[in-house]
Amino acid sequence: MAAGAPDHVYPQLAPDGQLIIQRCAVCGRTPSFARVRCPGCFGPLKEHLIDGYGEIISFTVVYRPQSPEFALHVPIVVVQVQLMDGPEIISSLLGDSRLQAHIGATVRIATRETWSSLPQFWLDPDVEDDGRCE
Ligand SMILES: [Zn+2]
């Protein structure tokens, strides 16, 4: 890891269900992964809290994971999410309705019952909002 580079998962999940992202203090860019300086203007990056909502812009379904430790979670719906106030990130979906994923679907960050070291999402907050993710 480069000297000074953040050594945590990015974006980080805040205790209240928000996400902690980096935002450039000069140009406002939000990098897709943790950086030391802004990739656009080399300006300083500041931590910024955003709501954990986003939109699926691409996805795929994994039926045969490369590692047996993930077999319990198959089928795994891997999604590329455009966060509403932040960058695009790669993640996965939780919940029984995850196979209904489609481009344009709204997702909400999961605060519980996650199994990945990366932040994970629930598909369609209105359907999945049964108390499992708050
Ligand atoms: Zn910048």
Topology:
Layout: E1 12-13, E2 19-24, E3 45-50, E4 53-62, E5 76-83, E6 88-94, E7 106-109, E8 121-123, H1 125-128
Parallel strand pairs: 6-8
Antiparallel strand pairs: 1-2, 2-3, 4-5, 4-7, 5-6, 7-8
Zinc ion binds at residues 24, 26-27, 29, 38, 40-41, 43.
Describe this structure in words.
3% of the residues lie in helices and 34% in strands. It has 134 residues and is mainly β. The protein has 2 domains: 39 residues; 76 residues, OB fold (Dihydrolipoamide Acetyltransferase, E2P). The strands form 2 sheets. A 5-stranded mixed β-barrel has the order 4-5-6-8-7. A hairpin with a 4-residue loop joins β5 and β6. It is globular and about 40 Å long. The C terminus is likely disordered.
Keywords, separated by commas or semicolons:
134 residues; mainly beta; OB fold (Dihydrolipoamide Acetyltransferase, E2P); 8 strands; 3% helix; 34% strand; globular; disordered C terminus
